What we know:
Blueprint: E1 22-25, E2 28-38, E3 42-49, E4 57-63, H1 74-90, E5 100-104, E6 108-112, E7 117-118, H2 129-142, E8 145-146, E9 156-158, E10 164-166, E11 173-174, H3 181-209, H4 216-222, H5 227-252, H6 272-275
Antiparallel strand pairs: 1-2, 2-3, 3-4, 4-6, 5-6, 7-9, 8-11, 9-10
Amino acid sequence: xxxxxxxxxxxxxxxxxxxxxxxxxxxxxxxxxxxxxxxxxxxxxxxxxxxxxxxxxxxxxxxxxxxxxxxxxxxxxxxxxxxxxxxxxxxxxxxxxxxxxxxxxxxxxxxxxxxxxxxxxxxxxxxxxxxxxxxxxxxxxxxxxxxxxxxxxxxxxxxxxxxxxxxxxxxxxxxxxxxxxxxxxxxxxxxxxxxxxxxxxxxxxxxxxxxxxxxxxxxxxxxxxxxxxxxxxxxxxxxxxxxxxxxxxxxxxxxxxxxxxxxxxxxxxxxxxxxxxxxxxx
Length: 282
């Protein structure tokens, strides 16, 4: 008697089924090329213009809309989209930050595609890359924004000529002039603190990938993890271990298969923690 195949656990992914083959956005029609990543919160996809367009390729992000264990998630997806839109607007015009293209559907949005590879695809980025990345962080910080996600090498892109780009501003935040003065002051202090964390991650990556270019002051900064950062790591490490254990068990049982597996980029280092070295997309 043949055993039934384990049902897919689609609740662990943002979408229950593959994204649409076509998107109408910014006055043009775009066709699906592939999926970069599909996790709990979003499916991030590459679309290409079907005809002449100002922006020939876009990255479309489908935020989570399907419920999780019966709990509605679409309001969170809409909130995250609005948050990223505001960050992109605050950084508009900066080289190194993709252009905002527009919103679509219930929780989706798109930005300009950057023809570049993530830092985690490089054993050693080009000479001077981290100095240029430091300049980009300076410009972002000057606009009152804390990136907050520099720990992930997949969010740092290495473009032509070693130009740096930053993507995924989901957990970034910024100073606000439209909030009450006491709250505004607290937010500004938090932004400055996280901006120092941005530099810690920057020089940590530089120490590991380009140690010969690191100055002594940068080396010191690369090891200066803030107190709140240390506390955050200690508090979230048990959650991370439990999550990886759960994902690994689901994967072994054949349940953790992405609805977009056939379209995904197979080089996804972040999934290696529970895929146990398998080459295919999960």
